[in-house]
Design goal:
mainly beta, Rubrerythrin, domain 2, three-stranded antiparallel sheet, 17% strand, globular, binds zinc ion
């Protein structure tokens, strides 16, 4: 289940290249450097 009503618990992406974080996934990747971003909100450290 995904709580769509709660905006604050949405996605969080971090750039592999520069470490910039964004809550919205850009089609072009990182808004700062254009690098690849990963979703850190849905991934947890093992
Ligand atoms: Zn970047």
């Amino acid at each position: 289940m995904r709580p769509q009503a709660n905006a604050d618990s949405g996605e969080l992406y971090e750039c592999f290249n520069c470490g910039a974080r964004t809550e919205q996934l850009q089609a072009a990747g990182c808004p700062e450097c254009g690098g690849q971003v990963r979703n850190i909100a849905s991934e947890r450290d093992l």
